[in-house]
Design goal:
210 residues, mainly alpha, 4 helices
């Protein structure tokens, strides 16, 4: 009987060990499965967040590029009528009253762009340069700063306008902005027109004295 008792005891012990081992294996398998699912969920959420961030960034870039294009159109109109800029505050314009009216309308359009389209561009440097251009236009056109140097006034504003144009082109292309530079001082003794420190090849315009 003793041998049968030992055999039964060993069999029971083996069975218990098998059941315990099986239970542990099932627990480990479930834990690994749950952890795998959790990791996959976390990865999917991370990828979704990254995709969403990229989409938002692309949307902001597209929005800025479209706004920059509209601002360039405003500046192109102003560029055409810049020779009449010093006449805006004059009762008797040196050129024609019609040209003065067109120039005033172009300056107003550029100013409105500062209050609308410019807000879609998040880069503070771009915004600051555009606002400086608006200030220069009003300083020449309505405040008469730099009087006595009419041609230099026009060329100063033209040079800075083209600098802002190049800045907006960089926004559209997604490229680096041109280097920062100090805006022209309209009241100065120097008769040379203002130009940015680095002039792109497509700025070689005889009207700028370049």
């Amino acid at each position: 009987m003793s041998s049968w008792g030992d055999l039964a005891s060993q069999t029971a012990t083996a069975l218990i060990g098998t059941l315990a081992g099986g239970g542990i294996a099932v627990y480990v398998t479930r834990w690994q499965t749950a952890r795998t699912i959790e990791s996959q969920v976390e990865l999917a959420a991370s990828q979704e967040a990254a995709t969403g961030a990229l989409a938002r960034q692309q949307w902001k870039q597209q929005r800025a590029a479209e706004a920059a294009q509209r601002l360039l159109e405003r500046l192109a109109e102003l560029y055409t009528w810049l020779p009449s800029l010093p006449d805006l505050a004059q009762d008797e314009p040196q050129l024609s009253a019609q040209a003065r009216a067109y120039c005033a309308a172009a300056v107003s359009a550029v100013r409105r762009g500062m209050q609308t389209d410019l807000l879609s561009i998040g880069d503070d440097r771009v915004r600051a340069r555009y606002r400086v251009l608006v200030r220069l236009c009003f300083d020449v056109g309505w405040r008469g700063i730099g009087q006595g140097h009419r041609e230099r006034q026009i060329r100063d504003v033209r040079g800075y306008l083209r600098y802002v144009q190049f800045t907006l082109e960089a926004v559209i292309d997604g490229g680096p902005l041109p280097d920062d530079c100090t805006a022209p001082e309209l009241e100065r003794s120097d008769s040379a027109p203002w130009l940015p420190p680095a002039v792109p090849w497509h700025w070689q315009d005889p009207a700028d004295g370049s």
